[in-house]
Amino acid sequence: MGISGLLPALHGATTAIHVSELTGSVVGVDGASWLFRGGYICAHELCTGRPTRRFADYVLDAAQTLVDAGLTPVVVFDGAVVPVKAELEAVRCASRASQVAEGLAQLAGGNKCGYRKLMAGFPVSCEMAAAAKQVLDAAGIACMFAPYEADAQLAALFHAGVISAVVTDDSDMLAYGVDRVLVKFNKDSGRAHMIRLAHLARSTSLDLVGFDGDMFLHMCILAGCDYGPSLRGTGLKRAHALVKHAPTLATLLNVLAATDTVPRSYLTAFLAARLTFRHQTVFDPASHEARPLFPLDLASIPPLPHDAPPLPADLHAALSPAPSPPGTCIQPR
């Protein structure tokens, strides 16, 4: 879902473009975002088990728009659910299932508003991702499954210089340090909004002058992300103020620990989210072997207060060699 409130706050760093302005570039694509878009047009079929490939056709059409504009897309699909997100995914799956049940009941009663419930509730399944990958493979368009989150794999491709931008529907790629992020991509017009990390200082609602990658990431986690619970009463502006006051990880944890309204469990959750953003398992673009996104130096992790819960044991699985080989998908989204 992205970082709470981030995209509107970066208006000054955002430019409306046509993708042809990136002609000659290799760009990554968050496959789940296109599967969701494609699923909207065939939600009834997906929720009733009727065969359909319309979602895969959407993904291929969107990729073809990039190809026709002179870009080379690399589509990445999610793999296993990362441990820090498992609880949230379970809640989302239950919510979607409820929406589908309500929608089908409404349709059975003759209420066409049920279609909206189905559009809000259909899951993006492993089978959908596999079907889309099959269509892309047949068209000669590069695609792959990530060990865990597609976002982390896309970040690995960017930081290795394989891709120069990412097309997505949320703001997580900015927290991963990707400099060019294309949102609101329209496959019919080829237009999108491009956000540049290099232009953060142009933000009109946040003073981000002097913010480095770590400070920006810490602000995003505090403001609310998918990798941990939100800190009560903290939106983007308070998160910004906290990070500006405490620019390093150690000082920020100390400030949070000294704040009576911050639960000790949040300190652990914050550190787990940071580790997941920075060191989640990806496939190395050169060797294709599993490795952390960035090398993990355990000695550099500041200690948590003695009364804070320990880091969850299953977190280490996502920071170690991947449990699933390339080309697999573990959980529906």
Detailed description of the structure:
The chain is of the alpha/beta class. The chain has 2 domains: 6-201, Rossmann fold (3-Layer(aba) Sandwich); 206-318, Orthogonal Bundle (DNA polymerase, domain 1), CATH 1.10.150.20. 43% of the residues lie in helices and 12% in strands. The protein is built from 14 helices and 9 strands. The strands form 2 sheets. A 7-stranded mixed beta sheet has the order 1-7-6-5-2-3-4, sandwiched between helices. Strands 8-9 form a two-stranded antiparallel ribbon. Helix 9 (172-175) links the parallel strand 5 (165-167) and strand 6. It is globular. Mean pLDDT is 92; it is low at 322-327. Residues 1-99 form the XPG N-terminal domain. It holds the Pfam family XPG_I. It is found in: Nucleus. GO terms for molecular function: 5'-flap endonuclease activity; DNA binding; exonuclease activity; metal ion binding. Residues 312-333 are annotated as: Disordered.
List the helices and strands in order: HEEHHHEHHHEHEHEEHHHHEEH
Task: Tally the helices.
Answer: 14
- Which range does the strand content fall in? 5-15%
CATH class call of the largest domain: Alpha Beta
What is the 3D shape?
globular
CATH architecture of the largest domain: 3-Layer(aba) Sandwich
Which spans of ≥5 residues are poorly predicted at pLDDT below 50? 322-327
Oligomeric state of the chains present here: single chain
As a percent range, the share of helical residues equals 40-55%
Report the CATH topology name of the largest domain. Answer: Rossmann fold
- What number is the mean pLDDT? 92
Strand order of the largest sheet: 1-7-6-5-2-3-4
Q: How many strands, which pairing sense, and closed or not: the largest β-sheet?
A: 7 strands, mixed
